[in-house]
């Protein structure tokens, strides 16, 4: 199975694209920092739809939930949301976005 160029994928896919696929609606925004209910329902469901326990920096492409204590980048967010290991989750993410995953051409 050919390898995925994860650095290339991190640069090609934005946090906004991942949040859109998750159906995330921020409750508040302060510049590049967005807050809202945690979309990771497998780990916990934000009790209130107005919860602000989930924080995401769209420019840095990182997230943190203060409820379930999950954190990472936009690619690990998709893997956590789908409950898949990272490699198949990235193939799934690329498929949903209608793009070919960038492949490693040389080791």
In short:
The chain is an alpha+beta fold and about 110 residues long. The protein has helices at about 5-10, 15-20, 75-80, 85-95; strands spanning about 30, 35, 55, 60-65, 70-75.
Task: List key phrases describing it.
107 residues; alpha+beta; DNA Primase, Chain A; 5-stranded antiparallel β-sheet; 17% strand; elongated
Q: In terms of per-residue confidence, which ranges show pLDDT below 50 for 5 or more consecutive residues? A: none
Mean pLDDT: 89
The CATH superfamily name is Zinc finger, CHC2-typedomain
| Biggest sheet strand line-up | 1-2-3-4-5
Structural description of this entry:
The protein has 107 residues and is α+β, with helices and mostly antiparallel strands. It is built from four helices and five strands, in the order H-H-E-E-E-E-E-H-H. The chain has helices at residues 6-12, 15-22, 74-82, 86-97; strands spanning 28-30, 33-36, 54-57, 62-65, 71-73. It has a five-stranded antiparallel beta sheet with strand order 1-2-3-4-5. The chain is elongated, with a radius of gyration of 14 Å. The mean pLDDT is 89.
List the helices and strands and how they pair.
Layout: H1 6-12, H2 15-22, E1 28-30, E2 33-36, E3 54-57, E4 62-65, E5 71-73, H3 74-82, H4 86-97
């Amino acid at each position: 199975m050919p390898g995925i160029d994860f650095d290339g994928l991190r640069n090609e896919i934005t946090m906004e694209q991942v949040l859109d696929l998750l159906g995330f609606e921020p409750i508040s925004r302060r510049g590049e920092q967005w807050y809202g209910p945690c979309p990771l329902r497998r780990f916990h469901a934000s009790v209130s739809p107005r919860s602000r326990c989930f924080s995401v920096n769209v420019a840095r492409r990182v997230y943190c939930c203060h409820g379930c204590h999950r954190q990472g980048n936009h690619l690990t967010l998709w893997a956590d949301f789908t409950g898949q290991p990272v490699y198949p989750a990235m193939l799934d993410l690329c498929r949903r976005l209608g793009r070919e995953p960038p492949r490693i051409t040389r080791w």
